[in-house]
Automatic annotation (TrEMBL):
Residues 508-520 have a biased composition (Basic and acidic residues). Residues 506-530 are annotated as: Disordered. It is found in: Membrane. Belongs to the purine-cytosine permease (2.A.39) family. This is Nucleobase:cation symporter-1, NCS1 family. InterPro entries: NCS1, Pur-cyt_permease, Uracil/uridine/allantoin_perm. Signal peptide: none annotated. GO terms for cellular component: plasma membrane.
């Protein structure tokens, strides 16, 4: 086992390896998974704020609020649900972000500390497959935008083309073209992704504002929009859907709450990354929510129905210029959000499974292929499926992983990790049993089963039976994210009690820390982090 003196803790708390070349022989290492040296951790508060602006301002974010309006909420109820959800999900997001900034490691490497060097692949691939689903969803709505734009320019011959698998063949062509553009960018590597994001992030805001102004003009101002009454009221009808809707809003960013270390590993300090996220996530999502609410409510005023998809709503506008400019902006910025939120992380996740064979580029291409295979058009075909089936189900599963990581990092190890052991092949404290930590696996299963085992759908509104997959725990599904997080958190701590706080480990860490400081002769300049 590598001694902890192989790593240095700087005065600001960030940790790095003295010599990363010692890891190169491990089959669990590649350059993209390697801990980032401190001198390369340069992201500031603004970088994280801008990152969230790019990731939050997209069509699926819009669909959160418009979906709530479509199922009967008024603007106050929808805005309250989304804002509260994003404030709650910010907590596990910041808890998991800490390890990325402190150790310079991405999410799948962080997960090795508690799932085992091999077992981390379970957590990483579960998260990665969800990202593939999101990649497909974003690509589908982007393809819809291309379809509508060309329909306005070409005419009915485009929009009225022969149907293939329930859609005009021209819709499939737009989808594949949008997919191909993203694959081209991914094939050029992560630098191309970052350069593309630098100039596209604000464009989606412009696109949505064009839609909003057009709706306000046509609807006669804010009055008719905010006067829309809730079809659910404020009684039982509202509170029955509030809890599962809130879980769906939280689950929307459940993926990022796990893999934010993929981005915070480049952070200049804990304060900068945390402040950037606190300023970035709630504000950008609240802005997105209110814009979506006004546009969707305005659509009800104009067309007598809640059209929750902004692309389909824009298709009804009679001004080709407004449609083309707005949707082109949305399409370009959707690519930016998709690459940042749904390609970077699964690329790391797939690379973690086969570090010597899968690079960032290949991982991104795998993401693109699975994104089509998952049939994203089905996931967003109905707001009930989008919110109550897709979001709530995967949110509960990923919440269980977040619970294990939070319990392990903050309670069991008290934020102390040994970097070299995260790459150790056949030995080290994170090898556990054959590379797997059974405690983390059992805790994850317990949390996930309690969270989503009772998954149900109202008749005709989803894929699950009305009585739930496991009827006795059906009641938990309305609180899937919270149940998964808390259950896995407690289960992992309970299973880890026999080894938690081992006196031998504690003494070893204290000796190494004291030895390192004595060698340096001036306490405070660097300290070894056991």
């Amino acid at each position: 086992m590598e001694p902890t003196s192989a790593q240095i803790q700087h005065p600001d708390g960030r940790v790095e390896l003295r010599d990363a070349s010692s890891l190169h022989g491990s089959r669990f290492f590649n350059a993209e998974l390697s801990p980032v040296p401190v001198e390369r951790r340069t992201w500031t508060t603004y970088n994280y704020f801008a990152l969230w602006m790019g990731m939050a301002h997209n069509i699926p974010s819009y669909l959160l609020a418009s979906g709530l309006i479509a199922i009967g909420m008024n603007w106050v109820q929808a805005f309250m649900t989304i804002t509260l959800g994003n404030l709650i999900v910010l907590i596990p997001m910041l808890l998991n972000s800490h390890a990325g900034t402190k150790y310079g490691i991405p999410f799948p490497v962080f997960a090795r500390a508690f799932y085992g060097v091999k077992g981390a692949n379970l957590a990483a691939l579960l998260r990665g497959f969800v990202a593939c689903g999101w990649f497909g969803i974003q690509t589908w709505v982007g393809g819809q935008a291309i379809f509508v734009i060309l329909g306005k320019l070409v005419g009915d011959g485009w929009t009225g083309a022969a149907s293939v698998f329930g859609q005009p063949w021209t819709m499939w062509l737009g989808f594949l073209a949008f997919w191909a553009v993203q694959m081209l960018i991914i094939s050029r590597g992560i630098d191309a992704v970052r350069k593309f994001e630098n100039w596209t992030a604000p464009i989606v805001t412009v696109g949505f504002l064009i839609l909003l102004v057009w709706i306000l003009v046509k609807a006669g101002g804010f009055g008719p929009i905010f006067d829309q009454e809730s079809r659910l009221g404020w009684g039982t009808g509202f509170w029955t859907v509030f809890a599962p809707s809130l879980m769906g809003m939280i689950a929307f960013w459940a993926t990022l709450s796990l893999n934010m270390p993929d981005f915070t590993r480049f952070g200049m300090s804990q304060r900068k990354q945390a402040l950037g996220q606190v300023l970035g996530l709630p504000t950008t999502m609240s802005f997105m929510a209110i814009v979506s609410i006004m546009i969707t409510s305005g659509g009800i005023v104009l067309y007598g129905e809640a059209i929750w998809d902004p692309v389909l709503l824009a298709a009804r506008f009679d001004s080709p210029v407004v449609v083309v400019v707005a949707l082109l902006g949305l399409a370009v910025a959707t690519i930016s959000a998709n690459l940042a939120a749904n390609v970077v992380s699964p690329s790391y996740d797939f690379s973690n499974a086969f570090p010597k064979r899968i690079s960032f580029r290949l991982g991104g291409l795998i993401t693109g292929v699975i994104g089509i295979a998952i049939q994203p058009w089905r996931l967003i075909s109905d707001p009930n499926i989008y919110i109550f089936a897709w979001l709530n189900f995967y949110g509960g599963v990923l919440a269980a992983i977040a619970g294990v990581l939070a319990a392990g990092y903050w309670v069991q190890t008290r934020t102390k990790l040994v970097l070299a052991d995260l790459f150790a092949d056949g030995h080290g404290r994170y090898w556990f049993t054959g590379g797997w930590n059974w405690r983390a696996l059992v805790a994850t299963v317990v949390g996930a089963v309690l969270a989503v085992g009772g998954a149900y759908s109202h008749p005709g509104e989803g894929p699950f039976p009305a009585d739930g997959l496991i009827p006795v725990i059906k009641v938990f599904y309305d609180y899937s994210w919270a149940v998964g997080l808390v259950a896995a958190f407690l289960a992992y701590l309970a299973l880890s009690l026999p080894t938690r706080g081992s006196p031998v480990v504690a003494q070893d860490e204290m000796k190494e820390e004291t030895h390192e400081r004595a060698d340096q002769g001036r306490p405070g300049t660097a300290a070894v982090d056991g």
